[in-house]
Design goal:
nine-stranded mixed β-sheet, seven-stranded mixed β-sheet, 21 strands
Length: about 525
C-alpha cells in the first residue's frame, strides 16, 4: 500500500500570471523593532510575493490582517483573489519575524511549505512563491521548500471502505517559483528532493501500515522487492538461517510469534569502490511490540506498530542511496521480529548467546529492541565497516529526556557530533548523550556477561542503558552512533508543518546527509 504522490517542478513565470489553482506566498510577523517604531501588528510580505502585492494595489497585507493573519510560523490564511491574479486562491503562510539581513532558515521554509500545501488539499495544482536567496544559501533554501511541499502533501492511503465527503485529495502537482527554471543547480536540487522525499514517504507508508499486514516475513519481502527493483544487492536470512548463524537475540525475540523473524541485508557498492569508506546502517524492525511476557499496558499499545520505524527508515534510505549513488559502500542490516507473548516466548531469566558470543541475561522481555540490534550490529562489524549508524525506537526514556522532536544520540563522541550537525542541517534535531560507567556497572549480571537492563530494574538513565548495552556489540575499530528516535519517529498529534499524523520518516534525511558527509570528508 502506497500513499498518493505529489509531483514537483520548477517554474520561472511571474507568479501573478501562473495558471494554477492556488499560489503560496510568505508573510512575516511584527518584530520587537517594528513594535518600538509603532508598527505593532504590521504584516510584511516576504520576497517572492512582489507581483502578487502589486496586483492588489498595496491592500494585500491589510486584507490578510483583517482575516486574522499574524505571520506566525506555520499559520496559513487563504484569500480568494476574485480575478486580481490568475490563481483563484492565495495562501499566505507565516514565516515568523523577518530575519535581519538573511533569508528565513531552511527549516522555517520547509515547515511553511509543508503547512501550506497540506492546507490546500483539494487544489490539484499549486504554485509556491516563498523567499529564496540568491547567495550561498540558495540551494539549501530551495531544497527545504521542495522537501516541505512534497512531504506536506503526504497522506497515508488508509483502509476506509466508504467515500469521505469532507476528505479532500492531496495536492497533485506543485510548482516552485525560482528565478531561472533551467538553472542546473536548481534542477539538481529538485531531483534530489524528489528522491529523498520518496524515501521519507516510503518510510511513513511502512510505519503506517496495519501490523497484521506487515509481520516480519511480509516486511522482509516488501523491503527485498523494493531493494531488488532499485538495483541493490539483497540477502534475506529466515529463521532457519538465523538459528544456524547464531543470531540468538533475533531468534529469542521472534520465537514467541507464529510469524518468524528475519534479517535483511542490503548493499550498495559504488563503481570502482568509490572512496573505499564503508558505512553500515542498522535499524530496529519490531513489527509489533506487545512487550512479550513483560506485557505493556493496553493504553496506547496500538502505536507499537511503529516499533519498526528504524528499520523502515534504514531500508528506505538504501532505496535513496541506490538513486543518489554516493561514492561510499553502504550496507544495511535490518533485523525484523514480532514481540509476542505465548508458550514459546523468551522469558525473564533466560540467558541468550548473541551473534558475537556474548551472553545476555534477560530481565525484561520488553527491552527486546536491543536484543535484535545487538545481533545486527555485531554482524555489521564482522563484515567490516568504518562507520556504523544505528537507529531505533528504543526507549521511552528518550521521550522523557528530550521530548518528541529531538532524537538522543550515543556512541563515539566525534561521530555523535556529526549526527547532531547533520540533524540540524536537515531539520531533524538530535542531541548527544553520555554513556556513563556507572550505568554500565548497574547492568552487571551475576550469571552472564551483561544484563539486558539495569540488574536492579532501576530505570534511572533508561535511555542511556540502551546505548550502554549496544556498545557491547560494536568492535573498537568501528566509529558508531546510536540514534534513539522513540519520540520523533511517530507523530500522534495533529498535523504540523510537513509532519502528518503517523510515521514521520525520521531520520532518513539525517542518514542521507551523513552518507554524503562521509563520501565528501571521510
Amino acid at each position: 500500500m502506497t500513499s498518493p504522490s505529489t509531483t514537483l517542478s520548477l517554474v520561472d513565470t511571474d507568479p501573478a500570471e501562473l495558471a494554477v489553482d492556488a499560489i503560496v506566498i510568505g508573510v512575516h510577523s511584527t518584530t520587537e523593532q517594528d513594535a518600538t517604531n509603532g508598527l505593532a501588528g504590521t504584516l510584511l510580505l516576504a520576497s517572492g510575493a512582489e507581483s502578487i502585492a502589486a496586483a492588489f494595489d498595496g491592500t494585500l497585507t491589510a486584507t490578510l490582517a483583517l482575516l486574522g493573519a499574524t505571520g506566525g510560523p506555520g499559520e496559513v490564511i487563504k484569500l480568494a483573489t476574485l480575478g486580481t491574479v490568475t490563481a483563484p486562491v492565495i495562501a499566505a503562510v507565516g514565516l515568523g519575524p523577518e530575519p535581519s539581513g538573511a533569508a528565513p532558515a531552511p527549516e522555517i521554509l520547509r515547515r511553511a511549505a509543508g503547512a501550506a500545501v497540506r492546507a490546500l488539499a483539494g487544489a490539484p495544482r499549486v504554485a509556491v512563491a516563498l523567499p529564496l536567496p540568491d547567495d550561498a544559501d540558495a540551494d539549501a533554501a530551495l531544497r527545504a521548500v521542495a522537501e516541505g511541499a512534497l512531504l506536506g502533501g503526504y497522506r497515508f492511503a488508509g483502509y476506509k471502505t466508504r467515500p469521505q465527503p469532507t476528505r479532500r485529495e492531496p495536492v497533485a502537482e506543485v510548482l516552485v517559483a525560482v528565478p531561472d527554471a533551467a538553472d542546473a543547480g536548481a534542477r539538481a536540487e529538485i531531483t534530489r528532493a524528489r528522491t529523498v522525499t520518496d524515501a521519507v514517504r516510503r518510510t511513513r507508508d511502512w510505519v503506517n501500515i496495519a501490523p497484521n499486514e506487515l509481520r516480519p516475513p511480509a516486511f522482509a519481502d516488501s523491503v527485498a522487492e523494493a531493494a531488488r527493483a532499485a538495483g541493490l544487492e539483497v540477502e534475506v536470512l529466515d529463521e532457519v538461517a538465523l538459528r544456524e548463524g547464531g543470531y540468538g537475540g533475533i531468534i529469542a525475540v521472534g520465537q514467541g510469534s507464529e510469524a518468524p523473524p528475519r534479517l535483511v541485508k542490503l548493499t550498495w557498492t559504488p563503481a570502482g569502490g568509490g572512496t573505499g569508506k564503508r558505512v553500515a546502517l542498522v535499524g530496529k524492525g519490531i513489527t509489533f511490540d506487545t512487550g512479550g511476557i513483560s506485557i505493556k499496558p493496553a493504553q496506547g499499545m496500538w502505536e507499537m506498530k511503529s516499533d519498526m520505524a528504524g528499520a523502515a527508515a534504514v531500508a528506505a534510505t538504501m532505496l535513496a542511496v541506490a538513486e543518489l549513488k554516493p561514492a561510499v559502500t553502504v550496507t544495511a542490516y535490518v533485523p525484523m521480529a514480532e514481540n509476542m507473548p505465548s508458550g514459546t516466548s523468551y522469558r525473564p531469566g533466560d540467558v541468550i548467546t548473541m551473534f558475537n558470543g556474548k551472553k545476555v541475561e534477560v530481565l525484561n522481555t520488553d527491552a527486546e529492541g536491543r536484543m535484535v540490534l545487538g545481533d545486527a550490529m555485531a554482524r555489521a562489524c564482522a563484515d567490516g565497516a568504518d562507520y556504523l549508524f544505528e537507529t531505533s525506537t528504543l526507549t521511552g526514556g528518550q521521550v522523557v529526556s528530550l521530548g518528541k522532536r529531538i532524537s538522543g544520540v550515543m556512541g563515539t563522541a566525534d561521530l555523535c557530533e556529526r549526527v547532531r550537525t547533520a540533524g540540524d542541517a536537515v531539520g531533524e534535531p538530535a542531541w548527544p548523550m553520555p554513556l556513563p560507567d556507572d550505568v554500565r556497572k548497574g547492568m552487571d549480571s551475576d550469571v552472564a556477561d551483561i544484563s539486558q537492563v539495569n540488574a536492579g530494574m532501576d530505570r534511572a538513565g533508561h535511555m542511556l542503558q540502551g546505548g550502554v548495552f549496544l556498545r557491547e556489540f560494536v568492535t573498537d575499530d568501528v566509529a558508531w552512533a546510536h540514534i534513539d528516535i522513540a519520540g520523533p519517529s511517530y507523530h500522534s498529534g495533529e498535523a504540523t508543518g510537513y509532519w502528518t499524523k503517523g510515521g514521520t520518516g525520521v531520520p532518513v534525511r539525517t542518514l542521507l546527509h551523513l552518507i554524503d558527509d562521509v563520501a565528501a570528508n571521510g
